[in-house]
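re: ur question from yesterday

yeah so i grabbed the chain u mentioned. its 345 aa long if i counted rite. heres the sequnce exactly as i have it in my notes:
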Amino acid sequence: MKSIRFLVFGIACAFAAPAAGRDATPVWDWRGTYSILVENDKFNSWDQGKQTDRNFTNGLRINWMSEPGLRWEPLKALAAWVPVFDASGKTRAGFALGQNIYTPEDISRRDLVRTDRPYSGWTYLAAALTSDLGGEGKGRLDTLELQLGLVGPQSFAEQTQKEWHKLIGARPPLGWNNQLRNEPGVALFYERKWRRQETPIARIGWLEIDATPHIGGSVGNVFTYAAAGATFRIGNDLSVDYGPPRIRPGLAGSMHIDPPADGFAYYAFFGFEGRAVARDITLDGNTLARSHSVDRRPLVGDLQMGVAALVGPMRGTFSYVMRTREFDGQRSPDRFGALSISYRY
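ran it thru and got these structure tokens back, copy pasting raw so excuse formatting
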């Protein structure tokens, strides 16, 4: 609990930082895009005719992304200092609270299932910077995100899953006594996306088509990987965002929304990402302490498809995600759904 309070206190101090000099204008302007993201394998309850609780079983993220323009001087200096981050675009800052939950396939067993992945939770606070750079018909989005949090019992993943299962009347998970040990975690993510900004790559009647390739990765004791992929969209007014938002690691689009030109926009999408994974604490186990682990596979791929709709300041998206096997002995690829609701205030 003390660790959680410390993290919350640190973010709160950043929020409350005073304005520079005698300027009485508040440093933080709370206008921006507010989002709730939920990813759960319950969305794939038709798998083999039964509900599933396995692998990445649930993710929750509550996110705020500012309007363009950084007003806090330390953030401006940081944005200008990072070599891979171009601060000359529309710069935004964001904060989030999130939790990822991972379990083995058979949650009815109390004993340690050595051939399946560990029970683990990753609860974190995140701070992000983005730069949306346009020019000559092309757009580029740089994203830099730092996640600080906890793995183990203090992540409260066990309590979250048990209370949720009790609420919906699902079978209780019985093996949480075998979860990873407490460990503070850090993950630093970077990603760059490209797209045509002013015009799409093609049109079919009133429909636009575009492609958004990306590269990125993460370093830290939680996730360390390099990634590359692309998202393809067909719809109307595709300039409103860079694709559907997602919980990392995954094909994350953009957390911000630009207003639709006619008050309404929509698109269907298909995307893929390949990751070369050097570390995943949810599979490799604790960094220094002895804990359960499995043999992680070095290459992981995601495929996703879905739809998005924007009406005025609101955006809703749904993605169906298929993820290749992440460790030796995993019986089948992972499949889950991702739902997001965003509001631009």
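noticed a couple things. Residues 1-25 have pLDDT under 50 and may be disordered. also DSSP finds four helices and 13 strands in the chain.
anyway ttyl
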